[in-house]
Design goal:
Pfam families: Oxidored_FMN. Strand 10, helix 8 and strand 11 form a beta-alpha-beta unit. The radius of gyration is 21 Å and the shape is globular. The strands form three sheets. It has an eight-stranded parallel barrel with strand order 3-4-5-8-9-10-11-12, surrounded by seven helices. Strands 1-2 form a two-stranded antiparallel sheet. It has a two-stranded parallel sheet with strand order 6-7. It is α/β, with parallel strands linked by helices and 391 residues long. The chain has 14 helices and twelve strands.
Length: 391
């Protein structure tokens, strides 16, 4: 059996395979509204055979955007645009998920493809909006970033309620699944990490206190969405910085998430800093984050998603066969090859004449299939069926 192409269910949602397109920030929304780019961007992944496509970090408030290009669901007028995105994904055979987020002290940045980091005079001259970010404490993310305004108790309630309202709008837009973004140094993860949270109230200090607000948001969102709708949470399993959040913390946190009705922990890492620090412990390589998904799955007893330079079908399949994760999340590899899932099925001999492809494509490809396979190296620069995991 090829586990990568087994169906898997979370609550009332059945996925046709275990291949997930990770949420990837495209920073291409306008005033929080999705554009035609998003329809094409997400539709091609669904057409490419993935079982689940998750829409990029969608802001719960205007001032919670990471950049001016983040999509949002902070008001009802944004539902129709997102409904079109969800429809395009589902109409092309995949389940539609959405990741919801507040950027916290990393909000108000420059769009990544314009250089990332703090907004410049050039960005402001182009019409980008600037604002002061908020966070758990008055600690800047890195040199050059604005000092965030520490959130009051009333501010925390407002953000919790914004997550709830956004999740409800996601349901109205037709999404099958919601993922809470608690990774990469954004607001909810910054409450977890001692690198960003030095509060002395009930939301700071001990690990239990630092977990309090993210768990409050989780509890509220779980109660707000239908019982049959899965709730995923993306975490940074470690900060990769001494004195920061560690895998042992993530195991404890994952147990608490499971108790609140979370169905899967999406195990990323990193993305958080403090002024003067670097991710000195980080060493990237194929599957470098898989051990975190494995440990959380075993020790917290919750389903996990594996991410991190998983490029080949063989590596993805081995992770699943070894019981290290339940889903495989792909990001850059999907940008490079949106039809990765179909290529993987062919690699394992599950299809042979392009029958799994959209029928509008399949008959064309079947007609020239032998020539395509013979010249795959020339056409694509690499053969996705190879076992070269260092590629």
């Amino acid at each position: 059996m090829v586990k990568l192409f087994e169906t898997v269910s979370f609550r009332s949602l059945e996925l046709k395979n275990r291949i997930v397109v990770s949420p990837m920030g495209m920073y291409s929304a306008e005033n929080g509204e999705v554009t035609p780019f998003h329809l094409v961007h997400y539709g091609k992944f669904a057409m490419g055979g993935a079982g689940l496509v998750i829409v990029e970090q969608t802001s719960v408030s205007r001032l919670g955007r990471i950049t001016n290009g983040d999509p949002g669901l902070w008001h009802d007028g944004q539902i129709d645009g997102m409904r079109q995105v969800a429809h395009v994904i589902k109409a092309n055979g995949a389940a539609a998920g959405i990741q919801i987020n507040h950027g916290g002290r990393k909000s108000g940045q420059q769009r990544a493809f314009r250089g990332n980091g703090p907004l410049t005079d050039r960005d402001l001259a182009m019409g980008e909006e600037a604002w002061t970010p908020s966070g758990p404490s008055a600690l800047r993310f890195a040199d050059g970033y604005a000092e965030p305004i520490p959130l009051s108790d009333d501010g925390l309630v407002g953000i919790r309620d914004a997550f709830v309202a956004t999740a409800r709008r996601a349901v109205l837009a037709g999404f099958d699944l919601v993922e809470l973004h608690m990774a990469h140094g954004y607001l909810l993860q910054s409450f977890l990490s001692p690198l960003a949270n030095v509060r002395t109230d009930a939301h700071g200090g001990s690990r239990e206190n630092r977990m309090r607000f993210p768990l409050e948001v989780t509890r509220a969102v779980r109660a707000a969405i239908p019982a049959g709708m899965p709730l995923f949470v993306r975490i940074s399993a470690t900060d990769w910085i001494d004195g920061g959040w560690e895998i042992e913390d993530s195991v404890v946190f994952a147990r608490a998430l499971k108790a609140l009705g979370v169905d899967l922990v999406d195990c990323s890492t990193g993305g958080n800093l403090r002024v003067g620090s670097t991710n000195a412990n980080l060493a990237r390589g194929p599957g470098y984050q898989v051990p975190f998904a494995d440990q959380i799955r075993r020790e917290a007893g919750i389903a996990t998603g594996a991410v991190g330079m998983i490029r080949t079908p063989d590596l993805a399949e081995r992770i699943l066969q070894d019981g290290k994760a339940d889903l495989i999340f792909l990001a850059r590899q999907m940008l490079y090859d949106p039809f990765w899932a179909h290529h993987a099925a062919e690699h394992f001999g599950l299809t042979g004449n392009f029958e799994a492809w959209p029928e509008q494509y399949g008959w064309w490809l079947a007609k020239w299939g032998h020539a395509l396979r013979a010249n795959r190296e020339d056409l694509h620069g690499f053969d996705p069926r190879r076992g070269d995991e260092e590629r």
